[in-house]
């Protein structure tokens, strides 16, 4: 089975960007919420100030979208490369059964 790198990049980008967005908005409402996660993001993303208001939340969200998309694409690529080396006939799914053809009950 092969992973689509575009779809996984999109999904992980939306997921991680959404997490940063939600945590940032929650932190604006309740300042102690998510401080550890936002400090971690601040240490990784250059130019991101952490808890600097709504503009900081938007910047963090964009960083999360890009970072998540890159991570998802790399993961899908690695998965697909590793799948080429580990192909084993015993891992194939069971062969498909022939379709069931309904019998004509009026002919009986």
Q: What is the mean pLDDT?
A: 86
Order of helices and strands: HHH
**How many structural domains in the coordinates?**
1
Structural class of the helix and strand makeup?
Answer: mainly alpha
Oligomer: single chain
Number of helical regions: 3
Largest sheet: none
**Helix content range:** 55-70%
Strands, total number: 0
Low-pLDDT sequence parts: none
The outline comes out as elongated
Beta-strand percentage range: under 5%
Provide structural commentary.
The protein is mainly alpha-helical. It has one domain. It has three helices and no strands.
In short, what is this structure?
With 108 residues, the chain is an all-alpha fold. It has helices at 5-29, 35-44, 54-85.
Write the layout of secondary structure elements.
Elements lengths: L4 H25 L5 H10 L9 H32 L23
Structural descriptors:
108 residues, 0% strand, elongated, 3 helices, mainly alpha, 62% helix
């Amino acid at each position: 089975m092969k992973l689509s790198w575009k779809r996984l990049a999109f999904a992980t980008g939306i997921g991680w960007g959404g997490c940063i967005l939600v945590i940032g908005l929650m932190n604006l409402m309740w300042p102690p919420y998510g401080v550890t996660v936002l400090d971690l993001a601040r240490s990784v993303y250059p130019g991101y100030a952490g808890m600097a208001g709504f503009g900081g939340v938007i910047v963090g969200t964009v960083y999360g979208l890009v970072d998540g998309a890159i991570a998802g694409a790399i993961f899908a690529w690695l998965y697909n490369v590793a799948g080429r080396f580990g192909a084993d006939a015993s891992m194939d799914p069971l062969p498909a059964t022939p379709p069931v053809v309904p019998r004509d009950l009026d002919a009986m």
